[in-house]
Design a protein that fits this description.
Blueprint: H1 8-35, E1 42-46, H2 57-67, E2 71-73, H3 76-84, H4 89-98, E3 102-103, H5 117-136, E4 141-144, H6 157-174, E5 177-181, H7 192-202, E6 209-210, H8 213-219, E7 236-239, H9 266-275, E8 281-284, H10 289-292, H11 296-315
Parallel strand pairs: 1-2, 1-8, 2-3, 4-5, 5-6, 7-8
Length: 318
């Protein structure tokens, strides 16, 4: 065995390097701790929030970008209007990308869930058209609420799950994922358990659920139910708030307020999402006529500021 002798200079050099490495690591750890937890969510503007200003789609997109959002959730009828007025969808898609935005979801009301076979067939045809035009501008997902089945209770949830699977298979061919959307005032799919039954029993790997703070409250479910849902199940979450008055059974869409301006347990909701390693898109969806009377860009800026404040409070970010 050959003995190796280390000079005093070499020893001091190696010791110094080790100390430097430890010091650097300690500084890095301290900096990381000072930076706090990283915000995992992506902020999105649902254009209902500035719907009352009656702006064209391209203007809504520009406002979202100027306000600092990274995504937008348009209403599909506005895309059809844009194309019908001669707008070039390929150019619009490029514009969206150039502005640094993505289309994480979109709103439509095709009647995919109803029992009437003829009407449901028409609903599926509308779904195909809506998903197709959405895909042309880069849309990833689309809302699938219980449109057409809101007045009469007792919808067979197993049949709803079968119909949802069929809708997902349509989306597979187009490249857009329909998301079950809870409607709190509906007689069907107004509770978390009902929606997740349809998602689970569809048996489709892309099945997912789009919750909404207001709708969960309006529908009567407890927000603790969100603790049971995986990150895959919730990919887009409608963020908003609601006041103490009107009461739960009287409140309507127009009563929604900015995050933090109401009584919703947003801190709990956001922490529960993070606890499941969720990286959901938080989409601001409001229908408040008071906001519609204001400048659209101002409303959008206030909205993202309120969203970030709520998230930072929940995660302890300063």
């Amino acid at each position: 065995m050959t003995k190796r002798y280390i000079s005093r200079r070499q020893l001091l050099g190696r010791t110094g390097a080790a100390v430097a490495a430890v010091t650097t690591t300690a500084i890095g750890d301290k900096t990381a701790r000072a930076a706090g937890p990283k915000v995992p969510f992506k902020f999105c503007l649902n254009t209902s929030t500035i719907r009352g200003q009656k702006l064209p789609l391209d203007k809504e997109i520009e406002i979202a970008a100027k306000a600092g959002y990274r995504a937008i959730e348009p209403w599909v009828h506005k895309i059809h209007e844009y194309a019908g007025d001669g707008g070039n969808l390929k150019d619009l898609r490029k514009r969206i990308t150039d502005l640094g935005l993505t289309i994480e979801s979109a709103i439509s009301f095709f009647q995919w869930i109803i029992d009437d076979d003829a009407r449901r067939a028409k609903g599926f045809e509308q779904a195909k058209r809506d998903m197709d035009i959405l895909a042309q501008i880069g849309g990833k997902r689309i809302a699938a609420p219980p449109a057409g089945a809101t007045r009469e209770p007792g919808l067979d949830l197993m049949k709803a799950a079968e119909r949802y699977r069929a809708l997902l298979e349509v989306g597979d061919k187009i490249g857009v994922v329909p998301q079950i959307e809870l409607w709190g005032s509906s007689k069907n799919l107004h509770r978390l358990g009902q929606c997740m039954f349809v998602v689970i029993e569809s048996g489709h790997p892309k099945a997912c659920f789009m919750p909404d703070v207001y709708h969960i409250y309006r529908g009567g479910s407890d927000f603790n139910g969100l603790k049971q849902l995986s990150a895959h199940a919730i990919q887009v979450f409608h963020l908003n708030d609601y006041p103490a008055d009107p009461p739960r059974d009287k409140i309507s869409d127009r009563d929604r307020v900015m995050p933090g301006d109401g009584i919703a347990p947003l801190t709990q909701i956001l922490r529960d999402l993070c606890a499941t390693s969720n990286r959901a898109v938080l989409s601001l969806e409001l229908f408040n006529p008071d906001y519609w009377k204001q400048d659209a860009l101002t409303v959008a800026k206030i909205g993202i500021s309120k969203m970030k404040t709520a998230v930072n409070k929940a995660l302890g970010v300063r």
